[in-house]
Amino acid sequence: xxxxxxxxxxxxxxxxxxxxxxxxxxxxxxxxxxxxxxxxxxxxxxxxxxxxxxxxxxxxxxxxxxxxxxxxxxxxxxxxxxxxxxxxxxxxxxxxxxxxxxxxxxxxxxxxxxxxxxxxxxxxxxxxxxxxxxxxxxxxxxxxxxxxxxxxxxxxxxxxxxxxxxxxxxxxxxxxxxxxxxxxxxxxxxxxxxxxxxxxxxxxxxxxxxxxxxxxxxxxxxxxxxxxxxxxxxxxxxxxxxxxxxxxxxxxxxxxxxxxxxxxxxxxxxxxxxxxxxxxxxxxxxxxxxxxxxxxxxxx
Length: 300
Ligand SMILES: Nc1ncnc2c1ncn2[C@@H]1O[C@H](COP(=O)(O)OP(=O)(O)OP(=O)(O)O)[C@@H](O)[C@H]1O
Ligand SMILES: [Mg+2]
Hints:
Layout: E1 3-5, H1 15-25, E2 29-38, E3 50-58, E4 62-67, H2 73-81, E5 88-93, E6 96-97, E7 105-108, H3 120-130, H4 135-148, H5 164-176, E8 182-186, H6 194-210, E9 214-218, H7 222-228, E10 231-236, E11 241-247, H8 262-275
Parallel strand pairs: 1-11, 4-9, 4-10, 7-8, 8-9
Antiparallel strand pairs: 2-3, 2-5, 5-6, 10-11
Helix pairs in contact: 3-4, 3-5, 4-5, 7-8
The structure holds adenosine-5'-triphosphate and magnesium ion.
The site of magnesium ion has 2 residues, from α2.
């Protein structure tokens, strides 16, 4: 596996960013993934879903995982969450080996996963209550997190009374209320419209700045990955494996305007090369079917 800083010769890394990368590298390791492998039963003659995946994530780092559809991103995230056993290899969170779900890992999925029969506040109180906290302190905890995600005025609503973006904000509050070491997010904004999605990205960065939490965020949207991440883990398929880990040379705080900066575009170009390599013969291999009424001319 290669680790790379994608920067053409004519671009510099800002001194602030250089310092930030150095300071991240010196932090404690929160997540260690070593030689992770995944096969599902009955697929012995095919390449494994995940081959041999190893990487580390430092405390308060924001990592995005990107790769083509079907390359094993969700499978990997479920393994890190302890929802899916490893065929081989090991996952450690804050030094402890993962053998099942645990409060040290919060999860947010693309599908809305709130309990529909509980109010927003009770959804967020659920984790602290399960952990044995009293009703009053769980409620205070829930209100604090709901304020952080900007939903202090919707605490008594039910999930079906909320928009998609609001539901995901509650899901984030619910995950954070357990004080996880790491937040594992699987395309959490994938079902939202473009404008809400971009608002949610800014919102997530703001929350991450204010909370001591490490984030591993799966997406297949290149702009989203560059906008959010310190480093991007790029996965390839058959078997799912790391193609490259890219340090994102874009200053923080991030803004939408940076999407046109040479640094942002340099990373985007590299991601495009890795994920969507140009195949000039791809169209030739498609079956040739013409659908035109008799007498009409289809464009050549
Ligand atoms: N329970 C299962 N049994 C057998 N195969 C599975 C199972 N779960 C996932 N797979 C296979 O593993 C591969 C990776 O799936 P996964 O959902 O992890 O991909 P992904 O990268 O998250 O894709 P997407 O971007 O579309 O969400 C797919 O080929 C899928 O069919
Ligand atoms: Mg997926």
